[in-house]
Amino acid sequence: MVRKLHCISCGKDYDEGVRYQCDCSGLLEVRYDLDGAGFDLERARNRRLGVWRYRELLPVEKNVSLNEGGTSLYKCDRLGRKFGIKNLWVKNEGENPTGSFKDRGMTVGVSKAVEFKVKAVACASTGNTSASLAAYAARSGITCMVIIPAGKIAYGKLSQALIYGAKVLAIKGNFDDALEMVMDACDKYGFYLLNSINPYRLEGQKTIAFEIFDQLDGVPDRVVLPVGNAGNISAIWKGFSEYIDLGIISQLPKMTGIQAEGAMPMVELFKENLDVLKPVKNPETIASAIRIGSPVSWLKAIRAIRDSKGLAESVTDPEILEAQKLLARKEGIFVEPASAASIAGLIKLIEQEDIDKDETIVCITTGHGLKDPDVAVDSCKDELIEVKNLEELDGVLRDI
């Protein structure tokens, strides 16, 4: 199959290789000769649901895999009824091997690193990216180096990066500082960068769109998801767009991105109808996975939102924590705070009457709740009941 790297800014094409940006500094994406891809949906549906079900639409011949993808799509009737939404679904990406959607991108990205015969892979991370890259690097036998903002990464995620054997460097500063540093290091030492600026990584993440179509047997009216570095929303849009080009579907969903109020450059870009992103210098939110002030894939993301006639909205940390509890207690789905942003954003948009309650809506929850258990325990600490004896226990149980 013919593939190329295409600049979304100037339109220049490049042959495949280790390249992250165009000469004009524009972002690259993988383009295919879809007619020659040989993809047959019915044949693909005979394979296990997961990233590699769609192998003809991915830029790799041999893969490094941990059986990623194939995550559940839950019909959330109890949560939907609370807000008057008739068709609410949650695509729970926390079911991936390392507990987040990042595994979809890393199976493709690390497979490409093996193909390119690189000596090491690297990333900057607020947590999930480092955990995922470390796991797939271990699976492939490639050295892994990650740079994290010191003191700003949940231990559930840091423990993964360390146990998988990554070389973890903690720096003073935030994610954006870490990304700048790792990009410089990759240039200097020849490491292969696997943040979302890498166009191959996003190819794995687009399979969320393919799976949603297979699981719903159709296209939802809207997809709602958290936005941090902005790669995932653009990747999912690319997946649906490729299905349009293949003639598999005839409609596209409205892409709706949710950010935390303390880290909302995409929301400002959208609401102020700007042409250029204004970074947030010191992003702060309890949702560490989306604590990013200068998302590298902002141009891809804003085009996805605008082209789909979607929305971008922000939510507060208290709204995120309340949504986290609601999803757990109404549907039994435990997600990390950043994931709950999609639920919090949906609730806010419904209350603002920006979304029709009759829409079929899929919320993407990006990471498992055990990624950041301290936040969950802290938010529920007032509900912990201490009893000293059987008499006190009897008093508590009689009130149930």
Structure description:
The chain is of the alpha/beta class and 400 residues long. It has 2 domains: 73-99 and 201-379, Rossmann fold (3-Layer(aba) Sandwich); 101-199, 3-Layer(aba) Sandwich (Rossmann fold). Helices cover 40% and strands 16% of the residues. It has 15 helices and 13 strands. The protein has helices spanning 41-44, 77-83, 102-116, 128-140, 155-163, 175-189, 199-205, 207-216, 231-245, 265-271, 298-307, 317-331, 337-351, 373-379, 390-398; strands at residues 3-7, 13-14, 28-32, 73-75, 87-92, 120-124, 143-149, 167-171, 192-193, 222-226, 254-260, 311-315, 360-365. The strands form 3 sheets. The protein has a 6-stranded mixed β-sheet, sandwiched between helices. A 4-stranded parallel β-sheet has the order 8-7-6-9, with helices on both faces. β1 (3-7) and β2 form a beta hairpin. α7 packs across α9 (231-245), α8 (207-216) crosses α9 and α12 (317-331) crosses α13. It is globular and about 75 Å long. The model has no long low-confidence stretch (mean pLDDT 96).
